[in-house]
Amino acid sequence: MEWYQYLACFFAGAFLANLVPHFVMGICGNKFPTPFAKPPGKGLSSPTVNVVWALVNLIVGFLLFRASGINRDNMISLIVFFAGIAAMSIMLSINFVHKHKE
Is this structure's pTM higher than 0.85? Predict the structure, then answer.
């Protein structure tokens, strides 16, 4: 694999991890921060905006996943993919800890 495919692996994991909280909060009818809120990433967006944002993340994550050439025979690509998931998950948990206190 080329270096840019590993980069695609990492960001595929990040985008696919990011879709989860937005999709879940959106389909539950809850407001949740998105980049489109005021202030971006801090204010709360409507459930519909969250579902749409989740679907955008799904499409981008899927396209990156396909472009990266991730497969079970290449353990390094899987590790990089899961590192993207872990990095985004940890970042989101830190960023959204105070979402209801503002």
Answer: yes
